[in-house]
Amino acid sequence: MFSRLVFAFVLSVLAGPVCAAEIATTPPVTEKTVLDKIAEPPLLQMPDLSLRLLQQSQPALSADNVAQWLQWERKRMQLMNQLGMWQDIVTRCYEQDKLLTHALMDSADRYWLLTQRIQAWIELREYEQALRALQQYLWQPDATPDVIAVWRQQLVHVYLGQDQIVDAERAMRRYREDYAAQSTEAVDWKLLQAQLLMRVDRPQEAYELIRHMSQPGAMALSLLARFQAQMLTPAAVREITQKYLARPDLKDDQRVLYVYVNYRVAVAELDLPAQINTLEALLINPARQALVDAFPEARKEITADALWTAYEQYGMQVANEQQLLQGDDLAWLALAETSVDAKAKSLTAVLALRARSKILQQQAITQFAALLEKQADGIEILRTLFLRGTPLAVDTLPTILRYKLVDFALARGDLQTAARLMETLQQPPKGQDAFDWNLRRARVLILSGQYDAGAAILHDLAQQPKFSEVQLDQYLQVVFDLQTVQQHVLALQAFAALEPKELPAKNRRELTYWK
Fold first, then answer.
1. Distance from the Cα of residue 294 to its chain's centroid
2. Which of 225, 339, 340, 342 is nearest to 272 (CA)?
3. What gap in Å lies between CA 278 and CA 280, rounded to an integer?
4. Most CB contacts within 10 A, which of 179, 468, 474, 504?
């Protein structure tokens, strides 16, 4: 439970100024008190609140309080790291550059701040920025051995993130030569080495390095290492992953790791149906970042194009087994209609990509989409395939499918995707009013940042001879969206387009007012 002091301080920050009577009865909150209270169990569980309290109380840096200021700054960085505020860390470090002169701070403290910035760049995957900083500072004569060691670990991370595997392995080997591996090595560094060892086909070494670690990422990596080192059979790996995946308490960021291990087993066994099932699950998993953190290579492996390739390869395999000829699209479509699951999807996917007839291609895409829509999260898989994959352009999709994807994007608040799709849909869906549809297009384009395109649709709508009162109100609402995004010139033009219309006196007064 909060102490009275912490409770009073939290209220003072969240509620603003207090009256004189409250000040008189509340113990004064000193700088030391804030840091002490942030370290207590209640606030340790609320890093966002702790950071707000710290920001309210941290003293400004001056020549007289450098050591004290650094104590606050280290705690600030710790909280920002905990909250994943990487861009804010970069910005904060740049702001402090203006203050951190040689007169105020020694090199060790300045290099500590630089290390925070480099790590934030790595987390943001801005590897070029991190590499330039490391190349500039790595061999500074006044840098301590501990700082140099951290920078050299970061260098390995940067090379691995850039897929410069040869450079990463060389940097890791030299690090190990200069710093004998200790059992006290940080968990993140051990994991990074294991990831690199897996990339250079040394799974046995990777396993030995992390075999006793209990973090989810390490356990999944250890399992894959044992499989690649032929210490476990594919069946044994699947049995282990199935036990984990069957646990109801398994979180998404853990589940995705074991699904990925199954995917790698499926690839090794050339099991295309299993590849398709795992790729579908991985592509739409909300914890993809956890996957990439544990298995950096997954960023390039788990893609929409990889799923298209798996569909195509399996479709060709099934067709060959049935002795179907390429180009006999009707026979392929007939087989797809009598097949189920991955077979049916793969056969229709091949036709979607290769059918000689435009009509048959559209029919195959429609059938392929219908099969996926029967699955849980199937529309999300469709969105990923058609909007992030390269084999099929969006404007080649049947219009009914594009309308579905628009509705799905809008339901998720994904205005950029909705706008991209609406650019290819000039006509409204069957049964929907053209004015309403085009007004919707205008609003989506405006709110997604395509102001001129949205305003152009408004201009076209204003050319219709008459407006009903409802239509006028709807039109004005979208013009107000232009005002909201500070596009006042375009808003005035949209108002002006209405001036020649025959409008009731009330509406004309409103128009003048809004102008």
1. 15
2. 342
3. 5
4. 474
For residue 46, what is the DSSP state? -
Q: How do residues 418-466 score in pLDDT, each as one tens digit?
A: 878 877 777 777 767 777 777 777 777 777 777 887 788 778 777 777 7
pLDDT value of residue 257: 95
CA 292: distance to chain centroid? 11
- Distance from C-alpha of 329 to C-alpha of 335, rounded to nearest angstrom: 10
Q: 382: Cβ–Cβ under 8 A, 6 or more apart, which residues?
A: 369, 372, 373, 401, 405
pLDDT for residue 184: 58
Q: How many CB atoms lie within 10 A of CB 15?
A: 8
162-170: which pairs have CB atoms within 8 A and are 24 or more residues apart? 162/127, 162/131, 163/300, 165/196, 165/199, 165/200, 168/196, 168/199, 169/196, 169/200
Q: Which two tokens stand for residue 195?
A: 């990831």
DSSP letter string, 411-446: HTT-HHHHHHHHTT--SPPTTS-HHHHHHHHHHHHH
Checking if the pLDDT of 26 tops 50, the result is: no
C-alpha 215 chain-centroid distance? 22
Crossing angle between the packed helical segments 469-484 and 451-461, to the nearest 10 degrees: 160
Instruction: Please say whether the beta carbons of 113 and 96 come within 8 A.
Output: yes
Q: What is the pLDDT of residues 163-191, one digit of tens each?
A: 999 999 999 999 998 887 554 578 889 99
CA angle 75, 80, 81 (to 5 degrees): 95
CA distances from 36 to 71, 236, 259 (A): 12, 50, 43
- Please tell me the pTM assigned to this model: 0.74
- Distance, in Å, from the CA atom of 109 to the CA atom of 511, rounded to the nearest integer, reads 61
pLDDT of res. 125: 92
> Of 478, 470, 472, 429, which is closest to residue 453 (Cα–Cα)?
478
Contacts of range 495-501, beta carbons closer than 8 Å, 24 or more positions apart: 497/458, 497/459, 497/462, 497/463, 498/462, 498/467, 498/472, 501/462, 501/466, 501/467
